[in-house]
Design brief:
- The chain has one domain.
- It contains 16 helices and no strands.
- The longest helix is centred in the N-terminal third of the chain and has 28 residues.
């Protein structure tokens, strides 16, 4: 299996891409409609509807695959990155990297937030203790805060695996189908455009104040920025491994670690600045992306589809897009 592929004559299936995008976004809005008609994120159903919303990209992808036949039969599992897991060592290594790296990146973004003055850290956890106390029924003894914090941190690796179940619902759509579909544009255009679409897809909940507490277009713009940044990393895992599974695990790990800043913040931070999807997170992720780019990691990619037929194999592959 070669590490540098850009099929000659490959074209973006724009009709399928547009159909996928419209379906994913429309289904997300449909799932969130009860929140808009009710009490927003305070609606009791939100705990059920948000995980269901995460399934909509996969539903959209499956509709496009089977109704529009993109890709055609014979290579669908490989195109989606579900199977085969080859080269196996690389796939396993990148799965482990996707599991362990996001909490470290989140921790680095917290330290950068503190350095930039976006958040004041409190390792006595008094801010978290106040939040915990307000969430408990009156008169309920407060458990040792240090023990609660330690338990929360210790559960991140397990939470990453559990969150990956729901993250799969997103990743099969975004990195499984959309990134390979856009890949004929070139690596960078595919990653950037898929990140923008991913961010806009979150609009139904972002406009209700999810993640950033902003209920206008600025919240959506911050989410687009975060999704472009993290989408490049998740996309790199997808392209470098030719498998969707490293991106699935990394997405689950990010979701499990995203709340770390709440544990150590003296007061509720502005997540648009201090959060992993906010400005501090963008900066840390941008540095990592720059290192990957400078070391040629975005140029080294296995095949994302079935090998060419013998009649087509004589044509030399085009160089990878910059």
């Amino acid at each position: 299996m070669t590490d540098r592929i850009a099929p000659r004559g490959g074209r973006v299936p724009w009709a399928a891409v547009i159909a996928f995008t419209v379906l994913a976004c429309a289904l997300a809005w449909l799932v969130c409609l009860p929140l808009w008609l009710g009490d927003g994120l305070a609606e009791p159903l939100s705990g059920v509807l948000l995980p269901v919303m995460m399934l909509t990209p996969t539903i959209a992808a499956l509709i496009v695959v089977f109704a529009m036949r993109v890709p055609p039969r014979g290579g669908r599992l490989r195109f989606l990155g579900l199977w085969p897991l080859r080269p196996a060592k690389r796939v396993v290594w990148l799965i482990v990297l996707g599991w362990l790296a996001p909490p470290i990146i989140v921790a680095l973004s917290i330290l950068l937030s503190a350095a930039l003055g976006f958040v004041q850290l409190d390792f006595a956890f008094s801010g978290f203790a106040a939040q915990l106390e307000s969430a408990l029924p009156p008169g309920t003894p407060l458990p040792p805060v240090g023990v609660v914090v330690a338990a929360q941190i210790a559960m991140i690796p397990v939470g990453a695996i559990l969150n990956s179940v729901f993250a799969f619902g997103e990743e099969l759509g975004w990195r499984g189908w959309l990134v390979p579909a856009l890949r004929p544009m070139g690596t960078w255009p595919a990653l950037l455009l898929s990140g923008v679409i991913w961010g806009l897809w979150h609009s139904p909940v972002i406009l209700l104040g999810y993640n950033f507490g902003r209920t206008d277009v600025t919240g959506v713009l911050f989410m687009v920025g975060g999704c472009v940044a993290w989408g490049i990393l998740l996309g790199w895992l997808r392209l470098r491994s030719a498998s969707v599974w490293p991106a699935v695990i990394a997405h689950g790990s990010l979701n499990a670690a995203a709340g770390l800043i709440v544990l150590v913040a003296a007061t509720q931070p502005d997540m648009a600045l201090a959060g992993p999807l906010g400005v501090a997170g963008w900066i840390v992720v941008a540095v990592i992306i720059a290192v990957l780019a400078l070391t040629g990691q975005f140029r080294a990619q296995p095949e994302l589809a079935a090998p060419a037929r013998p009649a087509e194999a004589s044509a030399p592959p085009l160089p990878d897009a910059p």
